[in-house]
Amino acid sequence: MSDHESYLSQVADVIRGLFDEYDGPITMETTARDVPQWDSLSHVRLMVLIEQELGVRFSTTEVQGFQNLGSLIDAVVKHKN
Amino acid sequence: MSSLFPWRRPLEEGWGARVSEIEAVVASGRMPDYASVRAAANQQLGPREQLRIERLAKRIEKVEAKGFTRMELGLLGSRTLSYLREPLGAAGLARGLLVSGHEAPYDHVASFAFSGHNCFERRLDAVLAVLGEASFQGLRPLLDRAAEDEALHEAERLVSAIGAAARSKTGCPVIIATLPPPLQLASADSATPGSSARFRLRINRMLADGAAERRWLIWDQAALAARVGLERWFDPIAYHSAKAPFSVQLCPLAADSVASLLAAMSGRSARALVLDLDNTLWGGVIGDDGITGIRIGQNSAEGEAFVAFQHFLLGLRARGVVLAVCSKNTDAIAREPFRHHPDMVLKEEHIAVFQANWDDKATNIRAVAEALGLGLESLAYVDDNPAERERVRRELPLVSTIEVGEDPSFFIERIARSGLFEHLPLNSDDLARASSYGGRAAVAEIRARVGNYEDYLKSLEMQMTISPFDAVSRPRIVQLINKSNQFNLTTRRYDDEDVSRMQEDRELLGWQVRLDDRFAQHGMIGVVIIRKHGAEWEIDTWLQSCRVLERGVEQGIMNSLFKEASAAGVESIRGRYIPTERNGMVSEFYPRLGFEVVTKSGDGSMNFACGVARYAPHPVFMNISLLR
Questions:
Q1: Would the CB atoms of B47 and A64 count as touching at under 8 Å?
Q2: What's the whole-number mean pLDDT along residues B542-552?
Q3: DSSP state of B168
Q4: Which domains does chain A have, with CATH numbers?
Q5: Where does the sequence pass through the membrane (chain B) (predicted)?
Q6: In whole angstroms, what is the distance from residue B17 CA to residue B15 CA?
Q7: Which of B139, B220, B221, B359 is most buried, judging by how many CB atoms fall within 10 Å of its CB?
C-alpha cells in the first residue's frame, strides 16, 4: 500500500466514526457534499480528529481549502515528510 | 497522548460491548440503567469513545432517563460555542446530568443584554456567557488610565445586564467565564494601562468580586487555561477558521469543567471523601511497619508528599467536605498514627466516621454512607490500590472512585482536577458542615444506645429558631431554595432578587429555620414561604435539609405556623404537593401533618387544606424560639 492509500484508509475510518449514518464509498474524490452529515460544524470536528489520529497539524489555509479527500491526503503526506 | 481525564478510571475492558448494550436499550425506547450509563461515560475516553458517548447523550436526552438531572443550558458567546454542545452532553452523563446546550445566534451578546428580544425562546436552568475581550467596548489607548477605568465600568454594565436579562427572560442565573490572559508581549504588560493583559486581569477581578457578592456565577476559564497551558488552550487556527474561542480538541475538557459547575449548582457535588489508610495517608503498612516504620513527615520525599496531601484534605474539610476512613485494619492499630505520630496532620477529630475492620471495602463504605446519612452518590473514595478501586467501582458504581494513581505526589492534583468538590461561593453554614456531620455520626452512636426514640430526641437538647428572611441569611436561603430536591414540597426556585423582594412583601411570610443540638450547629435547615390571602394562607414553599430528618422539625414549624395563623385570625391554611422525580419522600407530608386532600390534578400534584380551629398541635421535643 502506498502512503497515500494507507492514509486514506485511516482517514476513511475517522470519517465513518464521525458520520455514522454514511455507508457510501470513500475515495480520493469524496467531498463534503457526498456525506449528508458533513456540515461546516462537523468539518471542524473532522479536521481535529484527523489531526489527532494521524499526528499532523493543518494550516489555516488548508483546513478550509481542501477540494476533496485527495487534496487532504496530499497535505497529510506533505506534513508527514 | 495522555488522557484529558486522568482522574477517571482507565477505559475498562469490554467498554465497547457495554456501550452497545446501553445503545440497544435506548434504541428500543426504554430507559437505560442510570449507574451503567454514568459509569460508561465516566472513563478515560479517547477521541472515538468520546464521540460515541456524545451520540449516546443526544439519544438519552430523548428518552425520559431516570436518575439524571436535566439541565437546559443557554450558551452565549462572542465567538461560536457550538463545539461545546455535544461534549457537554457527554460530560453531563459522567456527572449524572442530562445537559442540553442551546446556543444563541452568533454575536447576540449585546442584543441579549440590552434588547427586549429573547433569542433563547425557552426556559433555561442557566446561561453560560463566554465573552471575549472584543465583547467589551471602549478604546483603551496605552497609558490612558481613565479610559481603562471607563472600559472596565462598561464591562461591568454589560455583565450586569446579561445577568438581569438571564433572570428576566429565561428565569435563570448566569455563569460568566473569566478571560484567559493573552499571549504576552512583555513582562510589563500587566503594568501597562490599556494593555490587553492588564484589562483582562481587571475584568477577572471584577467578575470575581461580583461572584462573591452573588451577582452572578463564574466559570473560571482562565484557571483551566492556565492548567492546560495557554499555548494549548488558545488555538489560533481554530480561532480564525472556526470562530472557536478556545481549542476544539480541548472542548471535552472545557465541557467537563462546566458540567462540574452545573453539578454543584444542582447539589450533586461530592459531600464526603472516604480515605484508605496504608499508602494513601502514609507510606507503608501500619500493621506491619508499626508507628516508627511508616513514612510520614520530613524524613523522606514520600513522607513529605503524604504530609502535603493531608494538609490538602484538611483544606477540603475546611470547605465543608466530610472526611471518613475506611481501612482493612485492626481498629486500635489503625488509630495509632492519628493519636501518636507527631507528623500526622490529620487527627482523629477530623474524621467523622472511622471504619477500620476486616470487612470488605464496599461494606464499609456503605456503613460510612449510613452513619453520615448521605446517599452513595455523595461519596468520593480515594485508595492507592488499583485492585481495591476496581472492586469498589464494580460493587458501588455510584460512589466516585477517583483514579489517584499510586504516587502520593499526584493525589492532590487528581482530586482537584476531578471537579468532584466543585462548589459555589461558600457561606458560613457550608464551612460548619464537616463538623456538623461529625456531630451526626456521634448522634448515630447515641441513638443505638438510647432505645426509646422520645428519650433520644430529648437527649439531643435541640433548639430550633424560626426567624424572618433577612439580608445576612439571604445567600443561604437562596441556596436552599435552589438546591433542595428531596424534602421540597413544590420545588419552586427563587433567586436572590426574588427573595430580596419577599423580604419587603407584607403579604408574605418568609421563614428561615435553624437548628442546633448538643452535638452540632446545623445552621439553616429549613425555608418556608407563606402567601397571605386574607383569611386563608397558602404554603408556597416548604423545604428542609435532609441532614436532620425524623427530629420533629416539620411538626415544630407547623405548630408555630398555626399559632401565628390563629393569632392573625386566619381560618385555614392551604398546601400543595408537586411531585418531581426526587421528592417522593414528602408525598405524604400533608396527610401526616393533619391536612386533608382538596383536589388532585392530572399531573399528580395535590392540594391540601387544614382548618386553623381543627389543627391539633403535634408533640415535639425541642425548644422553639419564634422571632418576628
A1: no
A2: 85
A3: I
A4: 3-80 (1.10.1200.10)
A5: none
A6: 6
A7: B221
